[in-house]
Amino acid sequence: MKLRDVVEALGLEVAAGREGLDREVTGGYCGDLLSDVMARAKRNYLWMTIQGHQNVVAVAVLTEVSGVVVCGDVEPEAATLERADREKVPILRTPLTAYEVCGRLYQLLN
Predict the structure, then answer these.
(1) CATH code of the domain containing 71
(2) In this predicted model, what pLDDT tens digit does every residue of 25-71 receive, in sequence order?
(3) Percentage of the chain surpassing pLDDT 70?
């Protein structure tokens, strides 16, 4: 499923990286410990987190995730959004908890 379709279905706000919305989403990973995400997130997964600092973009590029959902109404830092636009990494926002987003994504993909 295309990321833009996931964004629409889950009502996510695109905060940055709009150019990456045509990426495929094949699964999801939820985590806030960056070393864990680097070890376990897979290419084309959607990453759910509450982290909003710029290291999130670096990890997203390294792991080749489809995008990052910043959950719980957390506001990503301005530098994060600027870097995400440069790297074409979609940063999505939602007031939903990571638990809720993961559950809805699972239902959508299965």
Answers:
(1) 3.40.1390.20
(2) 999 999 999 999 999 999 999 999 999 999 999 999 999 999 999 99
(3) 100
Cα 9 to its chain centre, rounded Å, is 15
> What is d(CA 97, CA 110) in angstroms, rounded to the nearest whole number?
20
* Distance separating alpha carbons of residues 50 and 80, to the nearest angstrom: 13
Asked whether 41 and 29 are in contact (CB, 8 A), the reply is: yes
Rounded to whole angstroms, the Cα distance separating 95 from 110 reads 23
pLDDT confidence band for 73 (50 / 70 / 90): very high
- 64: its two tokens: 């080749």
Per the structure, the complete domain to which residue 81 belongs is given by 3-109
Count structural domains, the chain: 1
